[in-house]
């Protein structure tokens, strides 16, 4: 079967050149100091200099808040969606906005949150006065949550939709009230959906960099912003790679924490 | 009465959720018809900003480049990804298979900044000039894994006795590939091509890292314009891109509806669709 090797080789070449080599290179680059020497100074700096640790903490904190906001909006949405007629159609309409360029969605909010934009207008109409909304941490979080929303709704929707309805009925028949049924039956059985939702929202939230610039006004520095700055602005690739390696480590940790546990027999 | 009331709240919640999702998009499109400059006060209706796009040669050039890039990168990614899927399918050892699939998914789960920065190091080390070639290679690279994930299930669903029969009838390897395997996996390849196409069209972060001065895509251009503030030309552009996304989505659903898949598989495909 020589032919098999022939067409497999392009794919294997891709694996070597564009998957393994870049990972190895970013790992190697993270040990390159500002003078081009091989050193662990970058890691030392990262863990010694307060600014880096504070930035990492902030990034994780905001990613956590973004994930929480999306989860709180998404769970009821997904739950109610499974109860509608034509649910697949509605689900498609939830997915549709993800096909729209993320830059355009961010750009929309520059107008929406602007000084005389619709949000400020409504605030004034309600007698709350106008505020500086754009370039604040809150606007950054809200826009990030807006962009991530469909990614959270979909896995939760699938988990709830796959839930065996008879389990809920049994629970109700056995005298559990609605809340007890939800807390002890529905919620634990849809936990895997929540976990994969958290995974697909939290990791990108750590690395968003254009939102922090366009919407956050550089007030929140995420790990992604720091990497972009080191690579493209200050040209300190070593430090940028070090932060990159930290981000990869964070990603692996999150995937480990939210990974699907071994399936118990059902 | 009670259930009616519950439905009322349920529907109200869903309406609000859909409004949150769609209002920003429609807001953007609405003001693309505004004759005054900003996104706050609607003066009166005009097509002027669409005409502006038409006469903005730089923007048209960038649009053409972006689409050319998307067509080409997704085509090449589909070819390489399909051969990858065929290769993975032929690997018998389950551990090796899991390993390859694990490696395959690395680029799918990696944050864009990591892909962008590591590719930037990679191109610099190899001495590849940043520009169209580096962007094209990156787009091919991050689109391959999704093609593999779309094609592989089709191969696994394939009834292997077809191949045995073809072999018994004396078909050689290429004849089996062309006559038996390819027709079966074509829906997966088309779905993979679509996904790769939208990945390429939507990508901002990776392109931003690996593009030089000479080459720009729409996302990068929108970013640099948006940093300078509001220009309703972008609104008009977003309206056009929204329409285009609608066409793509409909096209995608039309194609994926043809293929005989179970409901579960559809969900899987949808899950892949938005990643």
From TrEMBL, chain A:
Top-level taxon of the source organism: Bacteria
InterPro entries: MetI-like, MetI-like_sf
Keyword annotations: Cell membrane, Membrane, Transmembrane, Transmembrane helix, Transport
Major localisation: membrane
Pfam families reported in the protein's UniProt record: BPD_transp_1 (PF00528)
Topology term for the membrane: Multi-pass membrane protein
GO CC annotation: plasma membrane
Sequence intervals crossing the membrane: 12-40, 60-82, 89-113, 133-157, 237-257
CDD domains in the cross-refs: TM_PBP2 (cd06261)
Domain annotation ABC transmembrane type-1: ranges: 56-258
Compartment(s) where it occurs, according to its Swiss-Prot or TrEMBL record: Cell membrane
Protein family (similarity comment): Belongs to the binding-protein-dependent transport system permease family. CysTW subfamily.
Protein name: Spermidine putrescine ABC transporter permease
TrEMBL record, chain B:
Residue span(s) of domain ABC transmembrane type-1: 63-252
Key words of the record: Cell membrane, Membrane, Transmembrane, Transmembrane helix, Transport
Membrane topology field: Multi-pass membrane protein
Keyword RNA-binding: no
TM stretches of this protein: 12-33, 67-91, 103-126, 132-152, 180-201, 234-255
Subcellular location: Cell membrane
One Gene Ontology biological process: transmembrane transport
Principal subcellular localization: membrane
SUPFAM superfamilies: MetI-like
One family name in Pfam for this protein: BPD_transp_1
Lineage: superkingdom: Bacteria
GO CC annotation terms, alphabetical: plasma membrane
Similarity section: Belongs to the binding-protein-dependent transport system permease family. CysTW subfamily.
Name of this chain's protein: Spermidine putrescine ABC transporter permease
Protein's organism: Liquorilactobacillus mali KCTC 3596 = DSM 20444
